[in-house]
Amino acid sequence: MKGKSLKDYFANARKEKWALAQFNVSCAEQLQGVVEAGVQARSPLLVGTSEGDAGFFTPSLAVNLVAFWKKETDLPIFLNFDHGKSYEVLERAALAGYDALHFDGSRFPLEENITIAKRVVEMARKHHISVVEGEFSEVPGGHSDLHNQEAPVLTDQDYTDSVVAAEFMKKSGVDTLAVMVGTLHGIFKTTQPLNIKRLQEIALRGIQFLVLHGGSGTPEQELKEAIQEGVVKVNVSTDLRVAFTNALKESMRENPAEIAPYNLLPKSVAAVKQVVLTWIGICGSVNKI
Ligand code: G3H
Ligand code: ZN
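Structure tokens for the assembled complex are given below, as produced in the milestone run.
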């Protein structure tokens, strides 16, 4: 499928019932671990950076490092700006050269969310960006390792409403929809089953490309079930952060006198690579380049 757009990959994933994991990175070494896994698994790669990362791992740095790895490996690697909360931040990402944009309008009133999402779509098309992701039902949690915390208790109102979803897609023109069906941002002590029935209802509304946020900590079997029901993208961040930092702590523990990053960081790259290989296996994107 080389030379295809990200949207082409989503269409193929939907047809063949697999998904692309989006690996959120905030440093060159995490990205290197993702790329090494993609090469080994012969998987297309989707990398994400969020507003929180952008102060340190700037959009320009992310775009240029991804361009380097695309040239180096000849892999299809796409870059998504994740959880962009304003038109302006997403326009800066588009100007920097991102392949996809996620407008997270979940904190806006629905009509305002739709209005901004429409503007983002128009802007994206001008920049030949094939995928704009929309969101109106927030995925709770916190992008961190919350092993010691109970998951928030969810009520029916927390889940994405399939009727609103259909209206949102029609009016906003976004290409993919982040849905809330029970995944949570971050890893909690407990999990609760995904609401697969709600996912089916949303998919039955003709929404072709569904996105799960909060991949880390979600039971593998539930993710596979969700992919069978139309999820084509699963976002993952905490798993990579935990792998990276635990390996770095181990390196420093084992070599307390070591001060050279080139001696301390390879373990973190390898740890991220292993986590990414696992996720590529769960999502089924092996040999899909
Ligand atoms: O947008 C990023 C993902 O939703 C991260 O979720 O940290 O639970 O894997 P996670
Ligand atoms: Zn997310």
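Strands lie at 20-24, 45-50, 77-84, 100-104, 131-135, 141-146, 176-179, 185-188, 210-212, 231-236. The radius of gyration is 18 Å. Further analysis is deferred to the final report.
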